[in-house]
Amino acid sequence: MQPMIQTDALSFSYPVEEGQRRTTALDNVTLSIEKGSFVVVLGHNGSGKSTLAKHMNAVLLPSGGAVYVEGMDTKKEELLLEIRRRVGMVFQNPDNQIVANVVEEDVAFAPENLGVPTAEIRRRVDDALAAVGMTEFTRHAPHLLSGGQKQRVAIAGVIAMEPECIVLDEATAMLDPSGRREVLDTVHRLNRERGITVVHITHHMSEAEDADRVIVMNDGVVAMDGAPREIFSRVEELQALGLAAPDTVELLRRLNRHSMNLPLTAITVDECARAIFQALHGAEGK
């Protein structure tokens, strides 16, 4: 099967003023994102994760190497519209993505610009709002919604384009915990029920627990790449990259320093609690 997104020796440097040193944001990055997968990209500020995200639907174009969306080269201008239809972006600040005074009009904005017939737009808007659980807010003013609700409307606007992939570029960074949960639940459901490929850029380690794959960026290169349990159990490597392991893993690790033998792969709260209970229960039975 052809990958959803593929980068081949991708390099990128931002323009600098004359006399300043040119810095490389991405350096020879080669990745393949499978269709239907849920991938989380982690990294500290300046690691290159958001720059990578912006290459996935040609917001940025490579300085070197190439990016392909279902085999389409993002550098080919004639393919730009189709690439952006297939890969939708949701950015950090939901207020910057709201373009209309009514929720349904905001969701309809992108399909209208694509020239979609009116009756089809109505169907897409209704379907997209239902998909993100915002049907009851169809006629609401977006500026009166919570942060999490605004991001769900932004996601609905992307869904209305009927993409095959959604890239969330720090889309939960400005939200409170309940808002982050709303957005995560929404994109996980879209991935699970509709098979939409999701690439989630974040600095919240806990948001990677249920991903199929975790990619860790550092200084413009891929530093780690694997399943969440495998990545998060490598605590020292994460710390060397300026990242903290999830609280659950850190708790297990500290308990292991006190002669317990707990698996660092128990990354969710339930798994962590179960592992500790079983270890204590086993100890009491001896």
Automatic annotation (TrEMBL):
InterPro entries per the UniProt record, alphabetical: AAA+_ATPase, ABC_transporter-like_ATP-bd, ABC_transporter-like_CS, ABC_transpr_CbiO/EcfA_su, ECF_ABC_transporter_ATP-bd, EcfA_1, P-loop_NTPase
Chief place of localization: membrane
GO CC annotation: ATP-binding cassette (ABC) transporter complex
Domain of life: Bacteria
Chain ranges of the ABC transporter domain: 5-244
Membrane protein topology class: Peripheral membrane protein
Annotated compartments: Cell membrane
Gene3D superfamilies: P-loop containing nucleotide triphosphate hydrolases
One GO MF term attached to the UniProt entry: ATP binding
Any single Pfam family the record assigns to this protein: ABC_tran
Keywords in alphabetical order: ATP-binding, Cell membrane, Membrane, Nucleotide-binding, Translocase, Transport
Family: Belongs to the ABC transporter superfamily.
Name of this protein: Energy-coupling factor transporter ATPase
Organism, scientific name: Brotocaccenecus cirricatena
